[in-house]
Amino acid sequence: MDLSIVILSYYNKNLVKEFLTNIFELRLPYDYEIIVVDNASYDGLAELIRDDFPGVKFIQSKKNGGFAYGNNLGIKQARGKYILLCNPDLAVLSAGIEILYNYMEDHPEVGLAGPRLINADQSIQYSCTRFPDWRLPLYRRTLLGETKKGQTWLDQYLMKKVNHYHNFYVPALFGACLIIRTEYLNKVGLLDEKYFMYMEDLDWSRRFWENGFKVAYVGQAEIIHLHRRQSASENIMKSFFNKPARNHIVSFIKYLLKFRNHQLPKAE
């Protein structure tokens, strides 16, 4: 099996339907499988897969254990040489998946890679980052990020000054679309399920580097991501009453505690 495509859904039945149709229309030149995981939304996705996509493997999670938990259910069932983790809000209108696959074939030193994600209007989503410090939730989740100091920090963190149409090694990638070399998971391990949402992709990227495998941004591979990030709250206290922001902050604290005695890996 060349490729396993894992799609995690939480109340996204219609998006999954559109994305599955998109994938099959690509006529990918691989021996591949598709695994759809429903994170306990029970929104009719099981029946949709059964009736419209009988060749797709479906996993029904009995609980919503979060991003890492749900994706790990799919990863454990995957048989491919590579695993492509996908959010359901993606659209592939070019050879993005094939370019990612070929990049992994040509770069055995790379264990984890991601494409250039773009918005529907063709603008770039900054999905590769440097390793953050304690300022991350302040500048990402509050209006402090709109200050001159905050903008300078965020531009550096999000690597905005590099050419995102090129391929290069990066410290970390966001998890909306990732391709993994399956054999390296024996050493690196699965996504850490202690994170309910956020930071699991940063944690994973860091562990790939720590175990001697490179992480790459494949700017030549273009994939549309329809996600819309919520705007920052006015202050840090209001952020705690915003569930996504609260999850982000709690996960970041867990990340800092987990790696507090680790040196940053040289991501090059």
UniProtKB/TrEMBL annotation:
Residues 4-141 form the Glycosyltransferase 2-like domain. It holds the Pfam family Glycos_transf_2. It comes from the Bacteria. This is Glycosyltransferase 2-like domain-containing protein.
